[in-house]
Amino acid sequence: MPGAAGPDRAAFRQQLDAAIESIDAQLRAAHEAREQALPACRRVIRAAGSSIRSVHRLEADRAAALAAEAEAALREAQEALAPFPEVAYAGFLHDAEKEYAEARFTAALVAGGVLPGPAELGVAPASWLRGLAEAASELRRHALDRLRDGDLSAAETLLGVMDDAYDSLMAIDYPDAITNGLRRTVDALRAVLERTRGDVTATAVQARLQRALEEAQGI
Q1: What is the model's pLDDT at position 210?
Q2: 173: helix, coil or strand?
Q3: Nearest residue to 56 (alpha-carbon basis) of 15, 107, 128, 8
Q4: For position 8, what pLDDT does the model report?
Q5: Which of 7-16, 68-77, 86-95, 204-213 is the most confident on average?
Q6: What is the pTM for the complete model shown?
Q7: Which residues contact 183 (CB under 8 A, 6 or more apart)?
Q8: What's the CA gap between 162 and 84, in Å, rounded?
Q9: What does the pLDDT average to over 160-174?
Q10: Residue among 45, 63, 41 nearest 53 (CA)
Q11: Domain end point (choices 123, 139, 156)
């Protein structure tokens, strides 16, 4: 019995070449988008970090300008990667979103402002949550600065904000694949929160003892 006829090699090669050409064009476009988005994401992270440092220095205008710079770079990265979700989900874009959200949150929490939501910030929900956790951790530095300035009341308020953020984030209980490792960030916040609570408590106790001593001495 004669064997089955093989494929028409000319037709097969034509189909193969067409498929490879199409795939190559798609991968080239994705690669070009990635090459555009990566430096934009690095700019986001640099500007957001500088914005947070400006918040701690009480340079509100500079902090806002740097946060706006971070946002512009983030939008550039998001636009470049929008047609390529497989690249956008690689991680670096979410990290940039998280850093931008952290900068905005740190400024809002220090100023006592309202937190913008994920849609308002233009970031993924998981990036929003991770940004909040890291912004709450950043409040430790600000609380210590207030303690050094002798403003115990402000430090206690910041500690309360950190506590509220931690309690709210603890209610988010989903796998890391959904939250991009939120649990690890919240665990780190817990450690920062407890150290800050210890510092604020020690200062409060010392202040009460000092007042009691002054009252006893009739000062």
Answers
A1: 79
A2: coil
A3: 107
A4: 81
A5: 68-77
A6: 0.87
A7: 176
A8: 36
A9: 94
A10: 63
A11: 123
CA dist 134 and 191 (Å) reads: 12
Which residue in the block uniquely carries the two structure tokens 């970090």?
49
The CA distance from 67 to 50, in Å, is 8
DSSP codes joined into one string, 103-171: HHHHHHHHHT-PPP-HHHHT--HHHHHHHHHHHHHHHHHHHHHHHHTT-HHHHHHHHHHHHHHHHHHHT
214 pLDDT above the threshold of 80: no
Residue 14 has pLDDT above 90, yes or no: no
Domain boundary among 123, 152, 176: 123
Assess whether 24 and 60 both reside in one domain. yes
Domain residue limits at 179: 124-219
CATH number at residue 182: 1.20.58.2140
Distance CA 165, CA 199 (A): 19
Render 60-100 in DSSP notation, one character per residue: HHHHHHHHHHHHHHHHHHHHHHTT-HHHHTTSHHHHHHHHH
Whether 100 and 171 share a structural domain: no
- In the chain, the number of structural domains is 2
Give the per-residue pLDDT at 90: 77
Per-residue model confidence (pLDDT) at position 138: 94
- For the chain, percent of residues with pLDDT exceeding 90: 72
